[in-house]
Amino acid sequence: MKIKVGFFDRILFKDFLYILSASGVFFSFFSIIIDVSEKAKLFVGIALIIILFIIYFVMWRAANKLTSLELSIDNSKVIVKLGNLFEEQGFKVIAFNEYFDTIVDNEIISQNTLNGFYLNNIISNVEELDTLIEQNESLREKVADINENRVRGKKKRYKLGTIFRNDDFLLTAFSRFDDNNRAFLNMNDYIGLLLNFWNEIDIIYAGKSVVLPLMGSGITRFKEYNNITDQELLELLLWSFKISRIKFTYPSTVTIIIHQARKDKINFYKLRGVI
Asked: Can you give the pTM of this predicted structure?
């Protein structure tokens, strides 16, 4: 078991105090109605301390083993859990680059990414997808500029956070690309695209659930923030949802899927104190 929640974690201790206060009321009532000798009181007190320590220890272990969490953010149900995005119900978000490139060659798009898997295994005709993107009227209004100097890949650059719906998949312009086809983001880009992303989700989702990966965890080049963690990215994602004021009414939910390989990098228990 990887230790992600410290033994004296503030949130854990606060939760324990609730149990302690409840048990205090019970034992106070117990001491009133039952006459216990002074000698027995000592043993009862020691036993009580041992029981409370065991309860705290069990809570601490459970906090470290936590692999899913359900949050209520402005009455919207948000779930964070381990899983496989493609096995979930609802709209599934796939992060593309700002050009909506579709070339899976391990240079522009890696076959090991969700983006690559989607294009190789879900899309039967990539050329048809390219045509749909090119001819979409809504996307035409969101072209940021055209990069005529680009040698490989598409030339139209879209505003970050722009979404193209393809059946149950929401293709999202997520990362910038440099001249060497390397994905990168500035922190201002990341925050701005998340706010734009939620705004577009609000227009598109139509009461359906939305499932998305931990957006940004695959971007190794966050300019000016070389050491940003998956935990920090997840907290920013939740924060952006909160300030977007988007409302998901029951039974629709937002689910953030954490890849199994990144489970040790996420402190699920800590998220309870973020929002």
From this structure: 0.86
